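Re: [help] complex structure
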Amino acid sequence: MQKIMVCIKRVVDYNVRVRVKPDGSGVMLDGVKMSVNPFDEIALEEALRIKERGTNIEVVAVSIGVADTQQQLRTALAMGADRAILVQTDTPVEPLTAAQTFLAVAKKENPDLIFLGKQAIDDDANQTGQMLAAIWERPQATYASKVEITGGKAAVTREVDAGLETIEVDLPAVITVDLRLNEPRYVKLPDIMKAKKKPLDVTSLDALGISAGQLIKTVKTEPPAQRQKGVMVKDVAELVDVLKKKGLI
Amino acid sequence: MHKVLIIGEHDGKTLNPATPKCVTCAKTIPDAEITIVLFGADTAAVAAQAASVLDVKSVLRVDRAENTQPLAAIFAPQIAALAADYTHLFGPSTSFGKDLMPRVAALLGVPQVSDLMAVEGAYRFRRPIYAGNAIVTVEADPARKLVATVRVASFAAAGGGGSASIDSKTLSVVLPTHTRYVGAKSGSTDRPDLQTAKRVVSGGRALGSAENFKLLFSFADKIGAAVGASRAAVDAGYAPNEMQVGQTGKIISPEIYIAVGISGAIQHLTGIKDARTIVAINKDSEAPIFEVADVGLVGDLFQVVPEFERLVGI
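Output below.
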């Protein structure tokens, strides 16, 4: 194991309550706090733990996005990534384009492992890791809650609907991570200072030979249907009464 | 005509209820002809079940020893080999479908639409983003194959009584050997399945321990309910991961959802907003769960739940 690539997405912070623009053209993003996608933070943490257990393993954080995405990559460097690459673009990229872009970077970097979050909390698409594995023609282990690397293999325990499932994949491979894989470390101030000196290369989709077309067009954005506010009951007897009248119990 | 291929989910014996829900979604595609494909070692029993789903035209069996376990790296190239005959490829938004379908889409060089919640045209759909805080209407290019996952909580299961043809298909696809199934650990119980149960009782961090979750299990058994949990309860180790309901767990649509000691984070509400009736029991009268609950009771769950269990029997 020599190199681990971690894909990072800049998204609206987990704690922000997203609102739809009145004209239905999208969601309000002006002045909203942006962060590293929480699942990608877990992906990076796992890469760092593997790095710290081994010797001479380089962790490279890669992102695609606007110039300000450098902020999220600096966070990744402060957490412990050795260097970062930003594929800068003002056009939002779809998961397939993101996968093609990460593949172009992977072909230059030749990582043994690529970690990603299982989904980004903005578009909730849950596609990029699987697509990257497909076009890289390598294994995928999605929704990881435990990763064990031995030799040229990874044993990955996956969170699936029925419980937990373990698969073994040959490296290089793509692993997408779930919530309970680890708890990401807090960044300390000295690390933030150190991160400023770490290399952060900026490239473009053009330089990588990627054309970012919008294959899926968003024509309208609406707020979800609201549920009617219900009734409050004063005790269990009244609760049971209400539910029995509705024929629910 | 639109030819829809649904990738059937099963465990070797039983067709997963997510598949008949995909059929309901597929039926809303204008002028749709529906095929279910099954991958497995021996899919005879499951094929009979799939053939009885109403409005399915045909069932394809792809039996092969390598298909014993549902590995995306193994299934995807086989689905890609079948794709030429179809306009639409659908899988369920379960861990099976979410793992598999993007790999299929990428092999075909097409994008995927995740979590279809409504069909507005053969290439126009509605889907949730930002944990359901916004719903987008999207249009895909009719010149390309449409790969999608179906948000199963948005569709009722198609009924039985159908009589689709069943055919076996041999595909000469070279399969990779880089991915191997090792084993599974499931917390299988006699309780109803969380994703299809009509009644669900769910617990949050306020339960305080795995031991205290027994309170919910006892109550759930009394009313024939499945048991779920909030992310906070799962993260705290009170409940196993397969019980998690919410944005990153299971999205469910029971007739009644009883939230016990769950504050109601937006990520949790995403998983339950299709429930017919939501009942909230919480000590904190300001808890956001009360904003979406149809019936709310402010009280100490350790007193309310045993009393609830006692009174429903009367």
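Chain A touches chain B through 81 residues (CB under 8 Å).
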